[in-house]
Here is the input.
Amino acid sequence: MQLFRPGANTIATLVMASIGAAPVLAVGLSYEVMRSPYVTNQNVTRNQPVPFSHEHHVSGLGLDCRYCHTSVEKARFAGIPPTETCMTCHSQIWTNAQMLAPVRESLAGNKPMAWTRVNRLPDYVYFDHSVHVAKGVGCTTCHGDVGQMRLMRQAAPLTMQWCLDCHRNPEPHLRPPEAVFDPNWQAPKNQSEAGPKLAATYHIKTGHLTDCTICHR
Here is the structure.
């Protein structure tokens, strides 16, 4: 009496192949999920108490990054502007605009605006804005083309691999000091020559930039 049907060998082969392929597929799927915006929040636009437009203020009005982010050159954190900074202009223009009501209420109640942070790193990651600015890394290198963002979004994945890629080879991203805060800066055609010269000028040595203690302290 025949115990197995003619297709039993095929079924057994497929089952064994599936058992071997399942771990590989699971690892690959996990890796893709970890890189996806679902985890990294890349290109996710956050709701804010006021729909502040970088496109209008940066590209339209020409405000320098440091006007609002006052501590970016001397501290780890770039800083969020206090309500008084907003009211420097908006006590004179758009004084009754409904969308700016939270700003007026913040000033009247002496309570800071509850802005939602867009670019967030884990607590175990050490990042210093002032160091990157001092070494010629421009704002748009990490934050994207903010001058075209009506609402701010996270432009980069901010993953460990993304950081390491730049730490291993920062030269393509380096700018002269006067261009660090230029939202329209584009790498010149001779960046392959200018980059190493800027790295030497900024005294950047990549030998230790991938040490664990650089970002994990």
